[in-house]
Structure formats: C-alpha cells, structure tokens
Amino acid sequence: MISVDEARDLTNDEAQPGRPAGLIGAVDNVLRLLRLFEDHEMVRVNQVSRDMGLSRSTVHRMLVTLAHHRFVEQEPLSRAYRPGPALIEIGLSVVGRIDVRAVSHDALTRLRDETGETVHLAHLRGPEAVYVDSVESAHAMRTGSRVGWTLPAHTTAAGKALLAELPDAELTTLYPSGELAAPTPRAVTTIGQLRVQLEETRRRGYATNNAESEDDVYAVAAVVRDKQGRARGAISTTAPRSRAGDAWVTATAEAVMRVARELGDRIG
C-alpha cells in the first residue's frame, strides 16, 4: 500500500505553470531527480524531498527503483546516493563520447600495438576510477576490457595518476576518515600511504598498480593533460604480473607517458 501523498506524487499528470500538457508526472519526477546530479555529487532522501517538494516516502521509492536499475547506487556509510553505472554507460554511448574519448581510440590502439598489452582510458569520479574506453591485447592470457567498470581510484594506476593531480585538501575531502578499503593485500589502507605513492607518481610522471585492484594484474598509467595543463583523463597499460618485469615496466612507462602527451596535444 502507498500513502495518499505518494499516490499524488506519482500520478500528478496535471498541467502546471511552465510545464507542458501531456507530461507523465512520475516520469517527470524521476528525470528531475536525476538532474540533481548535475549540481551534487551525492544526494540524500531529505534533500531531494525538500528540493523537489515530494514526500520522503516517494523519494525513497524512486531512489530504490533507480538503484535496482543501476542508475544510482547508495554509499554504504553515509547512505547518500550517487550516479550509478547505468547512468555512466548511457552517457558514454551518447554525444561525442567525452572530449578525450572522441579522439583517444586511435592512440589507445597504437599503444596496445606497441606494448602488446591491453590499454584503458579512465576518468576520475570522486574516489573512483571510471573506465570509458579500452583496446584489448591479442595475447591469449590478457587483462580484458574494463569499459563501464568503476574501481577504487587508490587501487588503480589510472586512478592514482589522476589523484596525484589533486590538491592535498581535495584528497582529504575524498577520504575524510583517512582509511581506505583494500580489495587485495597489496593495496594501501591509509591516506598517508596513498600520499607516499602519489608523491612518487608526481616525481616520475607515471603511476603503477601492482596487484592492488585485482590479483595478478600489473598496470602503468599516465595523465592526459590538455593544452591548458588540465587533467582530462588517464591512460593505462595492464598485463598479467608474470609479464611485468622491471624492463617491461620501464619501457611501458615511457610509451604510456609519450602517448599521453601526444593525446593531450590533440585536445583543447
């Protein structure tokens, strides 16, 4: 059973000032809710209820439905909601595939051909690395495409390359507790340990992931900067750890940094 307020919220199809006739009230409310993410990284039930003038129970049901379809996901500690994988996947399939992605695929392919390993393009979304493009290795044993994946940024090479671009105050905001989840035994678990890795990343110009996000995966990544010096994404080359010896890391880092610079020169 739903309340009278919920029934009104979900079936209000009446024309209102500034709103054309024929709109479906429930659909309009869901789309208005999603548009809140244009201005907010995360939203809470009380906030949405206040901003949209809907009952808390209606907002809760809307968010539960959106979460079921992966359009939003709930942050376990704060219980707030953030954009989910489905929203990201739709965004990637529309319009120019983001500025960098629109011109990156050829560069990723060249890097794959040069290194022989799978190559990814990723962006930073809060404390997560979001993978938006990939070109797979031809090896039978390889790391696969990660397009559509979101992984903790502090565990990935691409994520660390992008985190290294942030001011320290912003890094603290991303990790207010100072404690980090460790999906594998090799991942760092404190912001202090992460800062050491990020300083090393800035010093040498590239980041690494030594089985920190997934077992038996090694990755090398560098930031793609536009002509104004702004970070627009990061490219990474990943391989099974059995193929990632010291010589491979050195050669791959040089190739990744070079291709990242070349790609940055192509974007505004």
Percent helix range: 40-55%
Mean pLDDT: 87
Strand order in the sheet with the most strands: 5-4-3-8-7-6
Beta strand count: 8
Order of secondary-structure elements: HHHHEEHHEEEHHHEEEH
Overall number of structural domains: 2
Structural class determined from secondary elements: alpha+beta
Which range does the strand content fall in?
Answer: 15-25%
End-to-end separation in angstroms reads: 54 Å
Descriptive key words:
transcription regulation, WH-like_DNA-bd_sf, single chain, globular, 268 residues, alpha+beta, DNA-binding, 10 helices, Arc Repressor Mutant, subunit A
Give your account of this protein's structure:
- With 268 residues, the protein is α+β, with helices and mostly antiparallel strands.
- It folds into two domains: 81 residues, Orthogonal Bundle (Arc Repressor Mutant, subunit A), CATH 1.10.10.10; 171 residues, 2-Layer Sandwich (Beta-Lactamase).
- Helix content is 42%, strand content 18%.
- It is built from ten helices and eight strands.
- The strands form two sheets. Strands 5-4-3-8-7-6 form a six-stranded antiparallel sheet, sandwiched between helices.
- The model has no long low-confidence stretch (mean pLDDT 87).
